[in-house]
Design brief:
single chain; about 45% helix; DUF4145; DUF4145 domain-containing protein; 5 strands; binds zinc ion; alpha+beta; 5-stranded antiparallel sheet; about 230 residues; 2 domains
Length: about 230
């Protein structure tokens, strides 16, 4: 794409003495947190960079002594640049209960990769990752309960595995719905148009919650026999 763009226009202002710039007020939104340390604060605005005719980047500095990171706020648009994203972005990790980590380390790993891709703004593909994570969680749980059927369970479609092996109705209901939404993420046509990644994650959370409760309860029943 041909861009009308001259290199000498690229940098609007840079202070040689490191003083923050002041001509940033035309930007639609000014960062009020640091994407590296996640603290809410007033960053120093150091430089405006016109990357091309459509993209403007504001270089910011985190004033926290322990962080002091530089990061960019990216704006897109020709006349009124609208805030689009930060980079670099420290990724947030999701915590899972100990018994779930032990049950299915693959679930935790795949979920975390999907979560990272979501935080990178890859929202068209992270759903597929959540769907895959869910499959590992359910199958690892089922195989733990029915180790003799492990081969069969591994090859079975997830929906069928839930139908056949999950007895607890709450787990069954939440896991099934998560699978429905997860399948929506992998198919060309969406069936549950009013539901999105947030709902899929909520349903996975609920499944994790019920599984964790079941595992904990089983542990105490085994440890404390009357
Ligand atoms: Zn910071």
């Amino acid at each position: 794409m041909a861009v009308n763009y001259h290199e000498e226009d690229a940098i609007e202002l840079i202070h040689k003495d490191n003083n923050p710039i002041t001509n940033y007020n035309y930007l639609s939104f000014l960062p009020d947190k640091c994407p590296v340390c996640s603290y809410s604060l007033s960053p120093e605005y150091l430089l405006i960079y016109h990357k091309n005719h459509f993209t403007t980047e504001l270089l910011c500095g985190c004033p926290r002594e322990v962080c002091r990171s530089l990061f960019f706020a990216v704006y897109e648009g020709t006349n009124n640049p609208i805030f689009s994203r930060f980079y670099p972005y420290s990724k947030v990790e999701k915590d899972f209960p100990e018994e779930v980590i032990e049950l299915s380390p693959d679930f935790v790993e795949i979920y975390s990769q999907a979560y990272h891709s979501e935080q990178e703004g890859l929202d068209m593909i992270c759903g597929v990752g959540y769907r895959k994570a869910l499959e590992h969680l359910i199958k690892d749980f089922t195989i733990q309960q029915y180790p003799d059927d492990a081969d069969k369970i591994e090859k079975m479609p997830l929906q069928q595995c839930i139908q056949k092996y999950i007895e607890q109705s709450d787990i069954k209901d939440m896991a099934e719905r998560a699978v429905w939404l997860g399948n929506d993420e992998t198919h060309y046509v969406r069936k549950w148009g009013d539901k999105d990644i947030k709902d899929l994650k909520n349903l996975i959370d609920l499944t994790v919650y019920y599984l964790s409760m079941t595992l904990k309860a089983r542990q105490y029943r085994e440890e404390m026999v009357r």
